[in-house]
Predict the structure.
Amino acid sequence: MRLTQCHNFQDFRTLARKRLPGPIFNYIDGAADDEVTYRANTSAFDRCDLLPSVLTGVEEVDMSVTVMGQKLDMPIYCSPTALQRLFHHQGERAVAAAAEKYGTMFGVSSLGTVSLEEMRKKHKTPQVYQFYFHRDRGLNKAMMQRAKEAGVDVMMLTVDSITGGNRERDKRTGFSIPFRLTLGGMIQFAMKPMWGINYVTHEKFRLPQLEEHVDMGGGASSIGGYFSEMLDPSMNWDDVAEMVADWDGQFCLKGIMTAEDARRAVDIGCTGIVLSNHGGRQLDGSRTPFDQLKEIVDAVGDDIDVIMDSGIQRGTHVLKALSLGAKAVGGGRFYLYPLAAAGQKGVERALGLMHAEIERSMKLMGVTSLDQLSPENLRFR
């Protein structure tokens, strides 16, 4: 399969599987425990139907949105994800360039492989910085100050990852950073020599946001150790309220799943929340963000920008989420498979296909702007 033969999420997934060594593909593709939540995130959209209006005059449509003060040309953005240069040597550079081409937002992770400063200097499109809460409060302050000096638009604190999820696929292959592969994992790397050639002939793999704090040589800390040793499971609302006040700007909590927690986010001054179960990678058996969306929008949608991620694969999924009141949606795997398949060209094709799907679906729904969507456009089975 070639890139030009990729027309949807599953096509990109198939091509990524052909290009990546098994352990790395399974790191993207896998989730926690039995992966029930991972599958449910997408199937949740199948439980409701769109109700189109006809004869409304939809020659032109406007799919722009404003979320957390950021004007986006389309209502889906590239959520921050870790370790992107493992999937393709261009990593975040490819994603940011593609996002800028399509006028949407992208994110840099604390576990990102390109510095947030480089991305901010190169691209004008809105930039999110995703980070975790550390035991070292001084480190938290330093990371926020670094982001502020870099000119990051939105600070995004992930709140559903005080410890790592039970990702059994990674355990079977021995996937970790630094690599500690099982024999089977090493054999799978040997079967994809082009990945290895690209890995060793391009810029050395780094974690610029954390390299002063995480020993990539396999010493005191690794990525697994980062979650088990450096993150603070005692994080509470008072801690986050202090961070929101210190940032004094667009501040978003990612991983909110209840109306009560959404209300607390409003009360401490957050400007956005992301309904997310981390793509099914943390707590298996948790409810899907789409299933929780209306309840949370009804509770706080007038007071804070409600976003959702997890499970988005189609333009119709985007319209269903916006019909229930989401201001925008985020996605990870929807651009990571294309990144792995073909770098920047892959991400651009994925965003282009999503743009076309949203535009076509809006016309078929009979709406010229996204704010015309409402729960009346849906019927649940």
